[in-house]
Amino acid sequence: MLFWELMKDGGPVMWVILACSLVAMFVFLEKWFQFHREQINVRELVKGLINVLRRDGYVEALTLCDNTPGPVAKVLAAAILARERGDEDVRQAIEDANMVEIPRLESNLSLLGTIGYIAPLLGLLGTVFGMMGAFQTIQQSVYLSAGALSGDIRMALITTASGLCLAIPCYIAYNYLVTRVNSITLDMGKASSEIIYFFAHHRNAENSDGGGVTDK
Questions:
Q1: Whose CA is closest to 179, among 65, 32, 56?
Q2: Do 61 and 53 contact (CB within 8 A), yes or no?
Q3: Which long-range contacts (CB under 8 A, 24 or more apart) does 94-98 make?
Q4: pTM
């Protein structure tokens, strides 16, 4: 097979490149499925929570958050739980939840970026090994032919091409996943702002109603 011929002719560096490619593929698929599972309609979630919280249905709101996947629901659940406990600083509860959810979103992304960065270097390392072998062949041969150098030059070209073929998809996958993380983080910020605004407005409405009853 062509694959095994390339692996054999490319030398030991090719096995390192192959291992890196498997790790990169696993990381990308794992993150892609994670983001796909946690993809929700944030606007509908916030709208549903506000409708429930207008009736002071904290238990129902928390149940809705628990049944909704994704970090946005977890952040909103932390805010609602803090409000139910009577905590004054709901923002702090949201920040604490963000400190848990954002690292989980970003997990293993640095590994994918690192593989994309070092893949051309691995190809260059294989190129150096191939050129070293070629010069050694030149040094040891009295009558030099093109066939004597073809194996080492082939190894140099195979590793260089393989490193680039790994690096390009890794950079594309890394930038795609970072964009998804930024989008989810932005949704978390918007949803948090809306729920904080609702709590502040709802509290003012309660105080106004309470004041009217007292005046009577």
A1: 32
A2: yes
A3: 94/192, 94/196, 98/188, 98/192
A4: 0.81
Average pLDDT over residues 80-107: 88
Q: Is 53 in contact with 202 (CB distance < 8 Å)? A: yes
Q: Where are the domains of the chain?
A: 2-208
Give the closest residue to 16 by CA, choosing from 26, 5, 25, 7. 7
Q: How far apart are CA 36 and CA 186, in angstroms?
A: 17
Is the pLDDT reported for residue 141 higher than 70?
no
Looking up tokens 């950079």 gives 171
Rg (CA), the chain: 29
Nearest to 23 by CA among 103, 120, 109: 109
CA 114 – CA 116 distance, rounded (Å): 5
How far is CA 189 from each of CA 42, 90, 94, rounded to the nearest angstrom?
11, 13, 9
Q: Which residue has the higher pLDDT, 146 or 31?
A: 31
From the centroid of its chain, how far is CA 39?
13
Phi, psi torsion values for 145, nearest 5 degrees: -125, 165
Select from 28, 7, 4, 3 the least CA-distant residue to 17: 7
How far is the C-alpha of 37 from the C-alpha of 28, rounded, in Å? Answer: 14
- For 100-118, what is each residue's pLDDT tens digit? 999 999 999 999 999 999 9
Residues 3-17: what's their mean pLDDT? Answer: 84
